[in-house]
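User: My collaborator sent over this chain with a note saying "see what the structure looks like." That's all I know about it. Can you take a look?
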Amino acid sequence: MLKKTTGTINSISIVIDDQLWNGEVGDSIRNKFASAVIGLPQEEPLFNINQYPTKLLEGFMTDSRNIIVVKKEEVNKFEIITDQYATPQNVFHISGRTITDILSILEKQSATIIAVIRQTEIEESQRIIKKSVLNPKIIENKFQIGLDVPSDYKYALHEASFLWLKKEIISGSSSLLIYQVPIPQIINKNNLVSNIISMRDSIGKLYIHGKELDTDMMTEEAYAPYFFKIKLDGKTTYEMKGTWELKDDFMSGPFINYAIVDEEYGRILVLEGFCYSPSKEKRDLMHELEAIIKSVAIEKR
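Assistant: Without extra context I'll predict from the sequence alone. Here is the result:
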């Protein structure tokens, strides 16, 4: 029976000897795995990385969820071993005859490594969330979906076709919005990105305001949001990551917006997460929101 992995979300243990870590190989690892997360207003690293010399691999090191082992050896090799010492776990083995060989493997494989780790960390967050979830009935009855929302979220606004769930935290709050719009509102002859931005801004104008008059939530104009086409629950989904701000106010923060094309119900189902946490780190707040949204399951008609 394998032991359970431990450790904070979004962290990687790098097992590598000091002379490689303090040179080009270490620089490459830091550039790739601790580069800035996209869509956040301040720079925060993609993952927290901790380095350990190779001799520490035996023993306490092996209960990390994500381990990258880098060595100079006689043969060039890249392999991923799942649950090698504990579960759930990814151990990435990279070895090369020369520093150039190691750098070239890192160059080629880093996107794969990042995708695998991100997926594992989303699943780990979902597992933690599942331990204490909000009663799903309201969300289910209104939108015909299953969604695991942690029980520390409360309903901030409950309208006919719009839900706003909010969690208060010491430094601010995390929010989740659920609503739906007709498919042609997003998919028409106009630009997809600007359609989604105008949809967000019209929802902000309707429901999300600051304390002063006319301070509605809107997509920040100074930065173009990041835009990706992905699949969620098997359906084409448009993922947008960017920054929101309150019009004529100082409040702002990051958002992630998922517009799911749901042909069966003839709608675009929108799930959006955003947080307000001035001067505090936001990566893990946004990661939790992404984990919640990615648990979505649309009920069969």
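A starting point for your reply to your collaborator: The radius of gyration is 21 Å.
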